[in-house]
Amino acid sequence: MNVDIHKSWQPYLETEFEKPYFKELVNFVKTEYKNHVCFPPENQIFNAFNHCHFEDVKVVIIGQDPYHDVGQANGLCFSVKDDIKHPPSLINIFKEIETDLGIPYPKSGNLIRWADQGVLLLNATLTVRAHQAGSHQKKGWELFTDSVIKTISDEKENVVFLLWGGYAKQKQKLINHNKHSILLSGHPSPLSANRGYWFGNKHFSKTNSLLEQALQVPVQW
């Protein structure tokens, strides 16, 4: 694995790359990709950072694990490649946008269009072995992505953090509540959404309202 991350992030994360845990993580990921089918493709592991540069970050959405079926993961949480069937959580995200903002349900589930507007779509774990959910958890990725969240909190102001589900909500402790906005909700997965914990959260209109209050350009969801 090459740490192919956009130069805007490097001044903030280069000390992280030098830590022993990160070097062990790189070796682990290299071995996994060499000996197993893993996702996303190796050149897309840091896609979230390469499409959303540090100076542009205004919204952070936190996922847990990349999709682990063939052709799905593209390095952005909840996102799939063009022409790939939308997974259930993404369907529910688009349904909420549809009712919240009146935006028609999109054909493509590729969320690069969000990332390019300053939405960091960050999975806590950036890689996974095919068909084995959680297989790369607790190998060091979480230490790295926690550091990313804390760095954004420390170095920026008026970022909107969208924390969906119990796992993402745990990341609140890394965020300065006085400088940033945090919106909490159930997870968009069917299990949570069908129990009434997702639909109607209006996170997309609320995010744009918060951005406008901070004199930032709203997101074209």
Describe the structure.
It is found in: Cytoplasm. It holds the Pfam family UDG. Keywords: Cytoplasm, DNA damage, DNA repair, Hydrolase. InterPro entries: UDG_fam1, Ura-DNA_Glyclase_AS, Uracil-DNA_glycosylase-like, Uracil-DNA_glycosylase-like_sf. With 221 residues, the protein is of the alpha/beta class. Helices cover 37% and strands 11% of the residues. The longest helix has 16 residues, at 20-35.
Describe the secondary-structure layout.
Layout: H1 10-17, H2 20-35, E1 38-39, H3 47-51, E2 59-63, H4 88-101, H5 112-115, E3 119-123, E4 128-129, H6 141-155, E5 160-164, H7 165-169, E6 181-185, H8 190-193, H9 203-213
Parallel strand pairs: 2-3, 2-5, 5-6
Antiparallel strand pairs: 1-4
Main location: cytoplasm
Keywords: Cytoplasm, DNA damage, DNA repair, Hydrolase
EC number: 3.2.2.27
Key features?
221 residues, alpha/beta, two-stranded antiparallel ribbon, Uracil-DNA Glycosylase, subunit E, 9 helices
Strands of the biggest beta sheet: in what spatial order? 3-2-5-6
Rg measurement, Å: 17 Å
Give the overall pLDDT as a whole number.
97
CATH architecture: 3-Layer(aba) Sandwich
What's the count of strands?
6
CATH superfamily: Uracil-DNA glycosylase-like domain
Major β-sheet, in short?
4 strands, parallel
> Ends: how far apart?
32 Å
Low-confidence stretches: none
Given helix and strand content, the structural type is: alpha/beta
Shape: globular
Whole-number total of structural domains: 1
Can you tell me the CATH topology?
A: Uracil-DNA Glycosylase, subunit E
- What is the element string, with H for helices and E for strands? HHEHEHHEEHEHEHH
What fraction strand? 5-15%
Helix content: 25-40%
| Helical run tally | 9
